[in-house]
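Checklist before submission:
- one chain only
- standard amino acids only
- sequence pasted in full

Submission:
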Amino acid sequence: MKISEACELNQKAFGSLLPTFEQQYQQSLQSESRKRAVKGGKKAELKTITAKLFFILFYFKCYPTFDLAGFIFGIHRSQTDYWVHKLQLLEKA
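Returned file contents:
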């Protein structure tokens, strides 16, 4: 198998997982109690659902420290902790 074929296969798997992950993520947003209105507060650094899925897949694959994952994704280590716990819904997807 060529590298390009392996990358394409991985992109297909990522693409097939994305809709289910997005559905689970939206359901989790609706089920949690909120202190602020939707769209209120500081804007997330992981803005797109694709970025969120890539982040959590990377985290589960490599298990980097929060400091290293934060450095790689350009977020603070406390936000790394927040996103890891929030995006663990991947197991449901």
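Reviewer check: The chain has a mean pLDDT of 81.
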